[in-house]
């Protein structure tokens, strides 16, 4: 399914010669994502309209060649990588905010809009778009929909799918569809919008999005809570739930994560603390003050070493900057990273934290955990050298054990990173054979020739997890 000269000229005719490239240096820029893996595409195209997307996909079906939709390439599981070659469809030019409707609290946007830019735009109108992945400064709304991104505010406000009212997309057959509504209610037919959200570009390419907005909270208070035992921090999260306290954010960092962020930022983080929680509450001024006091009391009752309230917005911003710095800063602990984002019921957070500590001791590997403890979403990282076969094997055995225990607790192996290629070998742990076949059947209806984002989600039977996680491939430069 390589792209020959004639096919490339056809692509140029659709998007314009300046918006399609086969140059090796250009293709390299779209060959990798946050997994640090690289798969060279045969070409990169930059469409600007739904019609252009449909024509490219129609051409792909006729020729044929693979099409890999791509946002900012910030994904953690390889969802935007051209693992079988083909054309990367970069959605950079779909970057318009068409409307922010302050009367109906909705917005109409394109998928290439950067999430943080959109949040700032609606905030200027006194409105609020809650989904807030750590990559919001550069990730795009289309990518967020493809993975159903969450972020720290999910504990109170939910994830991306909870804010998508409707969308326009192009299926793998080239059909342009519009699904969903622009209203608060709507139950006409199947909810295909929700089916496409989280499908990682395997069913359709999203070209237009209608989003729900909320009023901007009047006030926010951020607290940093320190603990001398990691168990106590985990138990405090469960205690807040028992007391019916639902902050807008509850973020967890273990000692390794704290030290990592502090080494990079020099922000004065408490490196001697075994763990910390960053907790944020919002509402009107009176509500926030009372709510923050309830949070502080609950934390002290559970044995917190110290509770500090941010004194101004800049102090709060510095704390969140430290939290967002953890993931990219982890490479000071090792040249390679295995990054998982398990989720367990909130009451099971102490159990999963104890499991991670046990794995750390039994393997001797460098493990770092942090994440969205408020909704049970823990980001579990193993730092290692993947050129060491024994170390790599031990790491993947630890991941398999953690996944098994997560499912035993009633959790899931991915909360917001998706499946992509890195988790595909483990998918059958959670999805049964009938359900797997049903998913494949749905894929074949949307994308009968299998040209959209091949090699994602569904496991390749011949690959073992430790091989699939390190394999690099891609056609030679053409």
Describe this protein's structure.
The protein is α+β, with helices and mostly antiparallel strands. Among the domains are: 105-215, Uridine Diphospho-n-acetylenolpyruvylglucosamine Reductase, domain 3; 221-408, Vanillyl-alcohol Oxidase, Chain A, domain 3 (3-Layer(aba) Sandwich), CATH 3.40.462.10. Helix content is 35%, strand content 21%. It contains 15 helices and 18 strands. The chain has helices spanning 5-15, 24-29, 50-62, 115-123, 141-147, 154-157, 192-196, 230-242, 255-265, 285-301, 313-329, 349-363, 389-408, 433-446, 465-468; strands at 20-21, 43-45, 67-70, 87-90, 97-101, 106-109, 127-128, 164-171, 176-180, 204-212, 214-215, 219-227, 249-254, 275-283, 306-309, 336-343, 366-372, 377-384. The strands form four sheets. A seven-stranded antiparallel beta sheet has the order 15-12-14-13-17-18-16, with helices on both faces. The chain is globular. It starts with a helix and ends in a 10-residue tail after the last helix. Residues 462-478 have low confidence and may be disordered.
What is the spatial order of strands in the main beta sheet? 15-12-14-13-17-18-16
Derived from helix and strand composition plus strand pairing, the structural class reads alpha+beta
Within the CATH hierarchy, at the fold level, what is the topology of the domain at 221-408?
A: Vanillyl-alcohol Oxidase, Chain A, domain 3
CATH architecture of the domain at 221-408: 3-Layer(aba) Sandwich
Number of helices: 15
Gyration radius from CA atoms, angstroms? 22 Å
Q: Find the count of extended strands (DSSP E, 2+ residues).
A: 18
Overall mean confidence score, pLDDT: 93
Strand residue percentage? 15-25%
| CATH fourth-tier homologous superfamily of the domain at 221-408 | FAD-linked oxidases, C-terminal domain
CATH level 1 class label of the domain at 221-408? Alpha Beta
């Amino acid at each position: 399914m390589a792209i020959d000269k004639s096919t490339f000229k056809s692509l140029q005719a659709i998007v314009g010669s300046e918006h399609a490239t086969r140059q090796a240096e250009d293709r390299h820029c779209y060959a990798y994502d946050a997994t640090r893996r690289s798969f060279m595409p045969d070409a990169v195209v930059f469409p600007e309209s739904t019609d252009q997307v449909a024509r490219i996909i129609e051409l792909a079906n006729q020729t044929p060649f693979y099409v890999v939709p791509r946002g900012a390439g910030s994904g953690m599981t390889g969802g935007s990588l051209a693992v079988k070659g083909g054309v990367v469809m970069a959605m950079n030019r779909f970057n318009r905010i068409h409307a922010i409707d302050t009367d109906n609290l909705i917005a109409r946007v394109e998928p290439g809009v950067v999430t943080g830019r959109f949040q700032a735009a609606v905030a200027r109108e006194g409105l609020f778009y809650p989904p807030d992945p750590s990559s919001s400064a550069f990730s795009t709304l289309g990518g967020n929909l493809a993975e159903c991104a969450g972020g720290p505010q999910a504990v109170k406000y939910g994830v991306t799918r909870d804010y998508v009212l409707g969308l326009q997309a192009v299926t793998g057959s080239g059909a342009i569809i519009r699904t969903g509504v622009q209203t608060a209610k709507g139950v006409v037919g199947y909810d295909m919008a929700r089916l496409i959200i989280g499908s990682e570009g395997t069913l359709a390419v999203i070209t237009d999005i209608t989003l729900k907005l909320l009023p901007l909270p009047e006030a926010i208070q951020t607290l940093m809570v320190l603990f001398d035992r990691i168990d106590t921090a985990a138990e405090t999260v469960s205690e807040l739930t028992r007391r019916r306290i639902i902050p807008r954010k509850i973020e967890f960092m273990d000692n390794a994560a704290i030290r990592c962020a502090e080494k990079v930022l020099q922000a004065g983080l408490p490196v001697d603390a075994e763990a910390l929680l960053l907790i944020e509450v919002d509402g009107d001024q009176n509500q926030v003050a009372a709510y923050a006091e309830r949070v502080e009391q609950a934390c002290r009752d559970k044995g917190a070493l110290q509770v500090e309230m941010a004194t101004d917005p800049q102090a709060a911003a510095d704390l969140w900057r430290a939290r967002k710095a953890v993931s990219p800063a982890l490479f000071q602990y090792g040249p390679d990273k295995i990054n998982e984002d398990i989720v367990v019921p909130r009451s099971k957070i102490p159990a999963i934290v104890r499991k991670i500590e046990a794995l750390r001791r039994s393997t001797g590997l460098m493990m770092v955990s942090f994440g969205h403890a408020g909704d049970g979403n823990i980001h579990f990282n193993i730092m290692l050298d993947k050129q060491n076969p024994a170390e790599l094997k031990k790491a993947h055995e630890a991941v398999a054990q953690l996944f098994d225990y997560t499912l035993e607790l009633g959790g899931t192996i991915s909360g917001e990173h998706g499946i992509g290629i890195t988790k595909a070998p483990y998918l059958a742990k959670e999805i049964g054979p009938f359900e797997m076949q049903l998913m494949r059947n749905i894929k074949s209806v949307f994308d009968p020739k299998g040209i959209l984002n091949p090699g994602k989600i569904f496991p390749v039977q011949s690959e073992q997890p430790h091989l699939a996680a390190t394999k690099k491939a891609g056609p030679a430069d053409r």
